[in-house]
Amino acid sequence: MYDFVVVANRLPVDRVGERWQASPGGLVAALAPVLRARGGCWVGWPGETNTTLAPFSTGGIELVPVALDETDYTDFYEGFSNSTLWPLYHDLIVAPQYDQTWWERYVAVNERFALSVEKQAAHGATVWVQDYQLQLVPGLLRKRRPDLKAGFFLHIPFPSPDLFRQLPWREEILSSLEACDLIGFQRGTDEQNFRGLLPADASVRTGTFPISIDPKAITPGDPARVREAVGDPELLMLGVDRMDYTKGILQRLLAFEQLLESGVDATLIQLATPSRERIEHYRKTRREVEAAVGRINGRFGRIGRPVIHYVHHGVAKEELGSFYAAADIMLVTPFKDGMNLVAKEYVACHPDGSGALVLSEFAGAAVELHEAYLCNPFEVDSIVRAMHSAAHPDPQRMRAMYEWVTTHDVDAWAASFLEAL
Ligand code: ADQ
Fold first, then answer.
1. Is 155 in the pocket of ligand 1 (CB under 6 A)?
2. CA–CA separation, 82 vs 44, rounded Å?
3. Ligand 1 proximity of 339 Cβ (cutoff 6 Å)
4. Contact 338/131 with Cβ under 8 angstroms?
5. Where would I find the beta strands (DSSP E) of 312-383?
6. In terms of C-beta density within 10 A (0-12 exposed, 13-18 middle, 19 or more buried), how is residue 420 classed?
7. Is any ligand 1 atom within 6 A of the Cβ of residue 8?
8. How many A from CA of 240 to the centre of ligand 1?
9. 264 lines ligand 1 (CB under 6 A)
10. Comparing C-alpha atoms, which of 331, 336, 347, 334 is closest to residue 384?
11. For the range 46-53, what are the long-range contacts, defined as Cβ-Cβ under 8 Å and sequence gap of 24 or more?
12. 124: part of which helix (H) or strand (E)?
């Protein structure tokens, strides 16, 4: 039995051959010390369907796997989580689908997670539930284990009340979240949107806790090698994203194309990790991005000198630092984003005031990183204007952001949430 339980859709592990290896990430980095100090465990899905595993430990963290079968994956994960909630909470960039069967699976899988937590949690334990896939867990725990203290953190945006009210199962989700001792949001706007759905005298505690990165885990590496590999360009721009329609990758490419049309000599590296590839909207996003990359390279590239270097697979964290450090301009242009850690990782790789960040007003990170070159990703011209400004950056702006990111790291984030809880 544990006094502290973190529950998230995913366990922080990946299978490497026959073994399970801790997968690096800010959340684990922040929570591992807390889990160790408080004798805690992490409940989650190991990332493979039809895999039933006994609890095990890796990297000094106790892990409790929850099994998902193929139907759970399609209806709970791809369906309700990523084709209903994800687009709804990102302000309908694509239309959410409302499907009773998916909802029923979402309920069933949330019950399975809650049951696993109940088994692991000691009397009076603190449970920290992560993200939109598990919004029913707090309500289930409150009913069956009123002794537990439950916190919930939403990593993605919370939509305006009018959008949220579209959801056929809005009452169920709201009443579960209201059972929390504390709900954390990325931005004040998310918190206000949520509170807008509650009666004025509602007693549930909410707060704003912008997530951050572990600056020690991302280091500049070898930027010269990256620049050399792409032909030592005059101006090097970079995009790093999951291939997701929320990230505004196509708009960014169109802005880059416009910049080249205006005679600016620049090269772009776009790293895109494959994501949710069985969902049609994600496949469409990929097709559009790849068509644009091909077209723009066809128009402006020369043999051996493409203007866009595009990679559609994950890049190791150790290597990512070299790309960040090499880039003169980082392009972060999501239509909507809870926070966007890529923006903060880029800043962390520029301690000397070099570089410039073009950042969407609609990323949670814009609240803290207001020294970035802000743009409206729905207006391609706005991205182009920000690119032009960022081509002649004021080093004070990057220094100010570096100072902020390194003093407001993910440890501080976890500590502030847990203290408030
Ligand atoms: P994501 O939507 O996944 O996260 P983000 O915050 O940018 O977005 O985190 C992505 C992470 O994956 C970063 O640490 C980045 O380094 C890594 N990554 C992205 N592309 C990569 C690539 N091509 N190769 C290798 N690594 C790559 C969700 C929300 C965000 C919120 C986070 C954390 O959507 O808004 O900031 O959770 O709360």
1. yes
2. 17
3. yes
4. no
5. 329-332, 356-360, 373-375
6. middle
7. no
8. 9
9. no
10. 331
11. 46/10, 46/11, 46/13, 46/15, 46/20, 47/10, 47/11, 47/13, 47/14, 47/15, 48/15, 49/73
12. strand 121-130
Give residue 31's pLDDT: 86
Q: Do 186 and 211 touch, CB atoms closer than 8 A?
A: yes
Residue type, 316: A
Q: Is 184 in the pocket of ligand 1 (CB under 6 A)?
A: no
Instruction: Indicate the DSSP class of residue 371.
Output: T
**Rounded to 10 degrees, what is the CA torsion of 102, 135, 377, 209?**
-170
> What distance in Å separates the CA atoms of residue 379 and residue 138, rounded to the nearest whole number?
40
In 10 A of CB 415, how many CB atoms? 15
Q: What are phi and psi of 178, to 5 degrees?
A: -65, -15
CB of residue 242 inside a 6 A radius of ligand 1: yes
Q: What is the rounded CA–CA span in Å between residue 234 and residue 228?
A: 11
Where does 123-276 have alpha helices with state H? 137-144, 161-164, 170-177, 188-195, 223-229, 249-261
Closest ligand 1 atom to the C-alpha of 320?
A: 25
* Cβ proximity of 111 and 138 under 8 Å: no
Pocket test for ligand 1, best of 89, 156, 242 (most atoms within 8 A of CB): 242
The pLDDT assigned to 364 comes to 98
Q: Is there an atom of ligand 1 within 6 Å of 337 CB?
A: yes
Alpha helices in 186-311 (DSSP H): 188-195, 223-229, 249-261, 280-300
Measured in Å, residue 337 CA sits from the centre of ligand 1 at: 10
pLDDT for the residue numbered 29: 76
pLDDT beneath 70: ranges in the chain:
none
Answering whether pTM is above 0.85, one says yes
Distance CA 308, CA 9 (A): 35
345 Cα nearest atom in ligand 1: 16
Rounded distance between C-alpha atoms, residue 173 and residue 214, angstroms: 32
Check: CB of residue 211 under 8 Å from CB of residue 413: yes
CA distance to 85, 129, 131, 152, 270, per residue, from 204 (Å): 22, 16, 17, 12, 42
* 409 Cβ below 6 A of ligand 1: no
Task: Write down the pLDDT at residue 33.
Answer: 81
Dist. CA 333 → ligand 1 center (Å)? 13
User: Using an 8 Å Cβ cutoff, are 126 and 3 in contact?
Assistant: yes
